[in-house]
From TrEMBL:
Broad class of enzyme this protein falls into: hydrolase
Upper taxonomic lineage: Eukaryota, Metazoa, Chordata, Craniata, Vertebrata
UniProt-recorded name of the protein: Phosphoinositide phospholipase C
Pfam families: C2 (PF00168), PI-PLC-Y (PF00387)
Gene encoding the protein: PLCD4_2
Keywords: Hydrolase, Lipid degradation, Lipid metabolism
Amino acid sequence: MSSFSESKAKKLAKEAGTEFVQYNARQLCRTYPSGLRTDSSNYNPQDMWNVGCQIVALNFQTAGLEMDLNDGLFRQNGSCGYVLKPDFMRDGSSQFSPERPEDRPGYKPLRLSIQVISAQQLPKVNQKEGSIVDPLVRVEIYGVPQDQAKEETSHINNNGFNPVWNETLNFIVYTPELALVRFVVEDYDKASRNDFIGQFTLPFTCIQPGYRHIHLLSRDGTAIPPSSVFVNISISDLS
């Protein structure tokens, strides 16, 4: 097994993406956070998964987006064991490059439409008496560079109990086999940064079309029942 610092792995991914994918089809590879991250922050693991790195080490003690993505990827196997790479990344003669996903055999982008209908019983983020959240929902896509995208609803004033949006967010996902979808709910603030309320992340390939409740998780990944977002999801071919 070879070990690469995050900066070395990112450089290889950018300058020799196809060759790095081929290398990782026959060789175990571990990546790890830079020693300069004295605050135990994390790099985005998606960059490493895009080129087939098998062991992407993170600072598990630090909650945030990067750990949300890690937990989301491994949610498909019960957070136990390993997740098999897509078949086009397990072939030593693969011509796949995350920078040019359209060059691979079997390339088939998909359209993802998410109608954000409503939310239920969102927690307060400010415990001050009389404080009520002004929620919005954002959907974020993580994957190959072409797939990085985010769209959000408008915010609803003073309603964390049963806000209703009925707004549709649309995406085109070019490499669905590698994409993760992250649902984020925030408390809108006009004067400063929005406050985090909850999130849920899962692989695109695990998404079930139709009416679904997205059960939210706190910043550290624990459940916050009964908070949820009600959505209607459709996935279709790009015609």
